[in-house]
Amino acid sequence: MLHGKRVLLIISGGIAAYKSLELIRIMKKTGLTVRCILTKGGAEFVTPLAVSSLSENKVYKDLFSLTDEAEMGHIRLSRETDLIVIAPASADLLAKMAQGIADDLASTTLLATNKPVMAVPAMNVRMWENAATQENLNTLHKRGIKIIGPDEGDMACGEFGPGRMVEPEEISAEIIKYFGDNSPLAGKKALVTSGPTQEPIDPVRFISNRSSGKQGHAIAAALARQGAITKLVSGPTNQPDPAGVEVEHIETAQEMLNACQAALPVDIAVCAAAVSDWHINEEAKTKIKKTNDTPPTLRMATNPDILATLSSAGKNRPTLVIGFAAETDNIVANAKNKRDKKGCDWLLANDVSAESGTFGGSKNTIHFINDSGIEDWPEMTKKEVAETLSEKIIRCFNEK
């Protein structure tokens, strides 16, 4: 998590200001403290109440507010932050930054800051392509301002082209990457598998399981927040792709193995996916028809063992290989046997019986197994499991 890190978000005028509300929500979920400056133009599109409610902080608007400026508010705002993000960044505000104009709270704060600044432009395509705007952008780039976007697409004015503000998830990923450069796992590469696999029987049927992907996705997000360059290989789930994570979507166990092997070498591999143990030996090319009361005979073959393969990958073996054991009975004993058989470093065992509510649920109870023995973690949310595991990974690499 990015707890303790502070972002000052400046929301300038433009229809894209509505996206800033979603950006605030995403930043808060990562643990960031968010304070906001809302320009006069920005307030035409989003309300101070909405911004304040989502950021859980006071919204700053006026340069000459007696309360704030009695405490030199623009100086404090410019210094009491780790990063300034301008989203959307209007052509007007970019011009003020380039020329050093300070005639409102936003521009004055930007002129007074000694902190890094990211600007996310949003404007009409003709404004974006105008020589004045491009010259201002070149000036800001030379001064070290990071420019994110814009995207190309349809605009509210009815025109098409570059000028659309990039989506909040992409902005959040850039923010996570910025903080990740100085994070505990900065420079480490992580591979995470998540969700179920689907093994086709015929073009309309398949074998799968009840895995939701919540735990694997939470682990990938946690490692990315700690600075790891993270790749998530995911089977079919309803989970959104985590911000700041490279995601490859697959269906079968063989496709998952291929994606994992292509990602090597990595420092950390977490196999949280519920991989099907078997696939149909010969997938039917057309739908199997019901012709009588006798069901068809399905001949099965064993799927590749992804955890065992990564654990025995020779010179490409990850420094730390972590597996999961989804059990319904004799949980710890079965998990210890699995760890010995697979050759992984750590194994997290959990109860996935129907009454546990683990598959598809939001909570998990973990038995953590390594060379030192067994730790029984209390029931916690899957996000908390991911954070606990990421902290253990950090300590492991700090001790090496």
Structural summary, described in words:
The chain has 400 residues and is of the alpha/beta class. 35% of the residues lie in helices and 24% in strands. The protein contains 14 helices and 22 strands. The strands form six sheets. An eight-stranded mixed sheet has the order 13-12-9-14-17-18-20-21, with helices on both faces. A six-stranded parallel sheet has the order 3-2-1-4-5-6, sandwiched between helices. Strands 7-8 form a two-stranded antiparallel ribbon. The radius of gyration is 25 Å and the shape is elongated.
Structure keywords:
400 residues; alpha/beta; Rossmann fold; eight-stranded mixed β-sheet; six-stranded parallel β-sheet
Concise overview:
The chain has helices at 17-29, 48-55, 66-70, 73-79, 91-99, 105-112, 125-129, 131-142, 168-180, 214-225, 253-263, 306-311, 331-342, 382-399, and strands at residues 6-11, 33-38, 59-60, 83-89, 117-121, 146-147, 151-154, 160-164, 189-194, 199-202, 205-207, 229-234, 246-249, 268-271, 278-280, 300-302, 320-327, 346-351, 363-364, 366-370, 373-376, 380-381. The chain has 400 residues and is of the alpha/beta class.
If you average the pLDDT, what whole number results?
Answer: 89
Regions with pLDDT < 50 over 5+ consecutive residues? none
- Characterize the overall form: elongated
Structural class category: alpha/beta
Radius of gyration: 25 Å
Please tell me the total number of domains.
2
Tell me the span between the first and last alpha carbons: 23 Å
Please name the CATH topology of the largest domain: Rossmann fold
* Major beta sheet, strand line-up: 13-12-9-14-17-18-20-21
Main pleated-sheet profile: 8 strands, mixed
For the record, what is the CATH homologous superfamily label of the largest domain?
CoaB-like
What is the helix tally?
Answer: 14
User: For the record, what CATH class of the largest domain applies?
Assistant: Alpha Beta
Corresponding CATH architecture of the largest domain: 3-Layer(aba) Sandwich
